[in-house]
């Protein structure tokens, strides 16, 4: 049983490496004459064999919780990057023209200096948040938890909005889009393809930073000497089947704890990604008509209004009820706030819930239900700006 589980995990690690190898043209690449390389199968088997040998040796020579959690981090990061690489291929089966544009935008996005600059800056900020004293009398972990997701969201949001303005507005102004639109590529394929490619690049940044931040959370728990997280129930049930092998039991116990934390972090990353998607859709819609110098200030204003308006509506409504609606200023503020609230997305829906780290955390099922409803809400608010942007783009002469 133990050997079988080791082989399964090692094979999974090798399979997740295949998209990396293909993207780097180590397998599936072509020679100078354009012919497909024939050694891809041998190279794949070598990679899988090396992964199996390294993992098996690491497990038996150093059976420790640290090794198990490092393996969990590597496996999770491999999964995130593999999804980002495979997504354009999958999209190409259902939407070939749009997928080609999306993949080009994705590759252009991750090759931009600002991608690495923002990602590196966010990583430094996350590292500072790990060692920063918050002076909150035992609430440092909660402060780091919320601050970390805000840093990740901000970096991904800035990248996505700048990329939307650069890739669409500048291509239209520079007449580069004419080359694509003169071919059998519709404006819908061009606009939505660019949006999908930018969103995939933002996905890569957000979820890689999220995986690193998850490791920082584990380190923070160790620094604060917090109570160890108990393994999930499914692991406790299956513990007796693995009790014959100490290293294997330790490995799967720590992996179970790691991926239990991953489930919590993943739900919050989905919320952050929804917020990035909504604001990116607004930036894409505006970029069809206005240059980057106008687009970015407008998107920033809409972002602050979408965060501020729900608070204004709540405060003015409460004070108006206390004063019996006698204050004309409060009534005007409440009316204006309600008008903006009906148009703009409520970005507070995408805020990370502190209940997951509170004294009485919500159940994973209830929290994921909230995430699913928020995802539907985000899809609606991504669709509306894209339709509006498509209408504006259809009426613009790019020839």
What is the radius of gyration computed over CA atoms, rounded to a whole number of angstroms?
A: 24 Å
Note the main sheet: none
Shape: globular
What is the percent of helical residues?
Answer: over 70%
Distance between the termini: 66 Å
Q: How many beta-strand elements?
A: 0
Summarize the helices and strands and which ones pair or pack:
Layout: H1 2-23, H2 40-61, H3 65-94, H4 96-110, H5 113-131, H6 140-173, H7 176-181, H8 187-223, H9 233-238, H10 246-287, H11 292-322, H12 328-343, H13 364-394
Helix pairs in contact: 1-2, 1-3, 3-4, 3-8, 3-10, 4-8, 5-6, 5-8, 6-8, 6-10, 6-11, 8-10, 8-13, 10-11, 10-13, 11-12
Keywords:
399 residues; mainly alpha; 13 helices
Please describe what this structure looks like.
The chain has 13 helices and no strands. It is mainly alpha-helical and 399 residues long. The chain is globular and about 60 Å long. The mean pLDDT is 75.
Q: In short, what is this structure?
A:
The chain is mainly α and 399 residues long. The chain has helices at 2-23, 40-61, 65-94, 96-110, 113-131, 140-173, 176-181, 187-223, 233-238, 246-287, 292-322, 328-343, 364-394. Helix 1 (2-23) packs across helix 3, helix 3 (65-94) runs antiparallel to helix 8 (187-223) and helix 6 (140-173) crosses helix 11 (292-322).
């Amino acid at each position: 049983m133990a050997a079988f589980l080791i082989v399964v995990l090692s094979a999974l690690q090798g399979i997740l490496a295949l998209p990396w190898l293909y993207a780097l043209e180590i397998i599936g690449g072509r020679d100078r004459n354009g012919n497909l390389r024939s050694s891809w199968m041998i190279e794949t088997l070598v990679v899988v064999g090396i992964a199996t040998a390294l993992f098996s040796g690491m497990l038996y020579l150093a059976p420790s919780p640290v090794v198990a959690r490092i393996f969990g981090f590597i496996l999770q990061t491999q999964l995130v990057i593999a999804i980002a690489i495979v997504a354009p291929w999958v999209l190409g089966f259902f939407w070939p023209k749009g997928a080609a544009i999306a993949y080009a935008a994705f590759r252009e996005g991750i090759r931009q200096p600002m991608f690495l600059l923002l990602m590196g800056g966010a990583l430094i900020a996350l590292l500072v948040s790990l060692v920063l004293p918050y002076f909150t009398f035992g609430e440092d972990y909660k402060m780091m938890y919320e601050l970390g997701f805000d840093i990740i969201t901000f970096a991904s949001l800035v990248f996505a909005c700048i990329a939307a303005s650069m890739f669409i507005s500048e291509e239209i102004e520079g007449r580069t889009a004419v080359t694509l639109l003169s071919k059998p590529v519709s404006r819908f394929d061009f606009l939505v393809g660019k949006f999908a490619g930018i969103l995939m690049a933002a996905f890569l940044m957000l979820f890689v930073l999220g995986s690193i931040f998850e490791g920082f959370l584990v380190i923070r728990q160790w620094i604060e000497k917090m109570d160890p997280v108990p393994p999930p129930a499914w692991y406790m049930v299956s513990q007796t089947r693995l009790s014959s092998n100490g290293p294997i039991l330790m490995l799967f116990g720590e992996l179970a704890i790691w991926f239990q934390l991953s489930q919590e972090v993943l739900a919050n990353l989905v919320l952050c990604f929804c917020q990035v998607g909504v604001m990116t859709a607004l930036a894409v819609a505006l970029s069809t008509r206005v240059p980057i110098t106008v687009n970015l200030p407008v998107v920033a204003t809409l972002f602050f209004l979408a965060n501020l308006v729900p608070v204004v509506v709540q405060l003015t409504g409460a004070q108006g009820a206390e004063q019996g609606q006698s204050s004309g200023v409060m009534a005007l503020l409440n009316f204006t706030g309600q008008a903006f609230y009906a148009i703009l997305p409520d970005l507070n829906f995408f805020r990370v819930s502190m209940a997951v780290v509170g004294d009485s955390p919500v159940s994973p099922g209830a929290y994921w239900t909230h995430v699913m409803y928020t995802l539907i809400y985000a899809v609606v608010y991504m669709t509306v700006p894209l339709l509006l942007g498509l209408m504006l783009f259809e009426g613009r002469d790019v020839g």
